[in-house]
What does this fold into?
Amino acid sequence: MIQRYTRPEMGTLWTDESRFHTWLEVELYACEAQAELGLIPREAIPVIREKADFSVDRIAELERTLNHDVIAFLTNVAEHVGEYSRYVHLGLTSSDVVDTALSSVTRRAGLLLREGMVALRDAIAVRAREHKYTPVMGRTHGIHAEPMTFGLKLAMWHEEMQRNLVRIDRAIETISFGKLSGAVGTYANIDPFVERYVCEKMQLKPSPISTQVLQRDRHAEFLSAIAIIGGSLEKFATEVRHLQKTEVLEAEEYFSPGQKGSSAMPHKRNPITCERVAGMARLLRGYALAAFEDQALWHERDITHSSVERVILPDATIALDYMLAKMKGIVEKLLVYPENMLRNINGTRGLIFSQQVLLALTKAGMLREDAYRVVQSHAMRVWREDVHLRALLAADPEVTSRLSASELDACFDPSRSTKYVDFIFERLGL
It folds into this structure.
């Protein structure tokens, strides 16, 4: 991922330094386990631990000749360890180290993402409670439907983030497995105890069965969860983008002092951060698709997945980490304009209460089809003419013969749409 979208803590997880450090952890824990089994002299362990080290530059130099990053790494470690290096990597294959280490790093990345998700969810909760009763126009197909509250919009986001937390927890659990089972997963040259020992030390579980590699459905699930979470953020961002339209202007991104919106038009205040979030969500879906393609490997493994994962796992976690932080900032500083929300509610001249009239007429004894015809005929006039639906209905004998003036007024009471707001918030734990 480019530096522009990389936050330090997540970015550090995916550096070469971090990768080789995690490889070394696997190798050292494997040595300890082998010593427990009596396959390595116990006195060798403190020496190996003290001397074991690596140089990123030296590994890169060796790899140019060896054309194998793990062997280059082991060669460099051996240069530091000396005589006891013969015990390092005993009975292991490269994938034992690489896949176990990758699971460890991916798990840690997942936990960082979870922190960002909780922070965003909590920020949404604050704004949802703030605007619990703020009336806003509910829209379906982009068209005014019925009134609701802005708090309910945000409560919907909060609940979606709750589901996303379940997804990321499940994905972290799925990826938190290691394997040290040898060339084709048979433990021919390594005792299963080594696997158990290493995985426990690295907060992983041993894979119940593996080939030379962990099966890539695990990684596909992890990337799929990330893509879904990204889709949620895109949804939130898209809502803000619509609400920020000039003709709507019910909410907008914070525009900081000194910020510029356009190089040509000084008046512009553009939803650029929301657009950035929406755009980056497309990347996450692409990474998930690539992870799906990695599932089908030849026999007990090939390396078609390897080059892909070097890109998609760092990039996806770095991108989502950035998106979560940006979306949190958007939510916390979101400018909300209740007066414009009321203006837009009133802008359709009572049309948004058509269902209430339909129901009232039906309850008063009119056939539903007849009631629908009557209300719709007047509604179409409202669309064409500068007239309020209430006035048209009050002049129609078909309506007034069944509904009194007070009953008709009740149909246009906006509180009908908000009477269960408390119930919904309570159900959501807000």
